[in-house]
Request: fold
Amino acid sequence: MRSSVERIVFYVFAAIVIAFGWYIIFSNSPGVPVVSSVFAQAAPVSSAPEAARVLEVRLDDAIYPTQAEFIQDAFDEAARTNARLVLITMNTPGGLDSSMRAIIQKMIASPVPSVVYVSPAGTRAASAGFYILLSADVAAMAPGTNTGAASPIFVIGGQTVTIDETLRKKVVNDAAAYLRSITDKRGRNPKLAELAVTEAKAFTEKEALDGKLIDLIAPSTEDLLAQLNGREIRRFDGTTVKLALPSPVRTSFEMSGRQKFLGRIARPDVLFILVILAVLGLYVEFSNPGLIVPGIVGGVSLILALVAMQVLPINAIGVLLILTALVLFVLEAKITSHGMLGLAGAVAMFFGAMLLIKPGITGAGVSPQVALIVTLPFALITVFLMRQVFQSFSWKPSTGMEQMVGVSGEVTTSVETPQPDGFYHGQASVQGVLWSVMAAQPLPHGAVVRVLKVDGLTLHVELAGTPHKAAATKV
Reply:
């Protein structure tokens, strides 16, 4: 019975969570990263020695560690193939601070000049994207785009929180100093750039150009390359380079299907869903061996979660809160707390989910919507299943010799004299089978007895009623 209930509950919850996770993974909504990894491949390269090769990379959506690895690999590929330029076409709402810094460090150290181009119209380079844009050798934007809004975000899972004023100033000043150092070396306007950090100011492409934050406005990639041809730029180390792009050969640095998949699972929301599926699936399988499907789902989810944890910056506090939530759910099922322990567990899991990822100054992490949608049903299901487990401990066995305990029978041989061991030994019919019985009191013929325990082939019994024929047999 318990096995069937757990199986049904698991399948329903797994179907809901998998469908929700599928929507998150394969939707193209803002803030969902399409990332790559270290095994990214470049398209075939032209063998013409005179061609000015431009390696094109698309940086779309949020910036996570695998995205940073992909960009770093693009610069390595550009250096290996002697490309003239790395062109990063960017559209991002921001991302992890550590990933942003990894991209900037690679961009600064690369021997190949870089151009970051915010395009097409209607896109943006916000938060971490603003830092990356201003770090490039050439910063360009298409008409109808915007950038900025790079203030440090103090969040728990996407929700802004108030922190100590001293700590806030410390983080803001660190972010502002980092941006000033970059823009100053690039010959841009550090004072105006700093406003994007201290006042969360955002800029249109025209405002950015007039304020000397970017170098060019170009309606298309072709126009951008035409404007760059013959342009002299200053590298981060102070050296100057003249770009020669008379007939640029554009090569796209692409991602394989495997890399796209790995990039999609290495995201905070997906990681949290995988952890929950792993816990529930493995619990159902271990408590009911042989169901197979829950074990497969739980095992695969656990492996994928571990892969994602190797990529994302995991916060130990978030992990501890989730483990605490599981303990509280078990205690709620075992102890009568009128729901208080279950509520505390749900709160612990919610905050654990939102603290699971270290977001840095950019605020990326498990979204509160996902944390809430997954936590509530998981809490209810876990408490329900654990109560089933604890209740089953008190259930009477339905198979084996133990199921005889409590069953009634009828004495078939009268026993009035105790044996040397002090017990009265006789025979009784129990469930249609003749058993040897022993009791602490005499056993009249026809008396109803109740089984107390089973000792081998002997039943320990006690009288449960008056004998059916006792009065008639007496003289």
Summary: Residues 2-27+267-392 form one domain. The chain has 15 helices and 19 strands. The mean pLDDT is 79. The first strand starts at residue 41 and ends at 42.
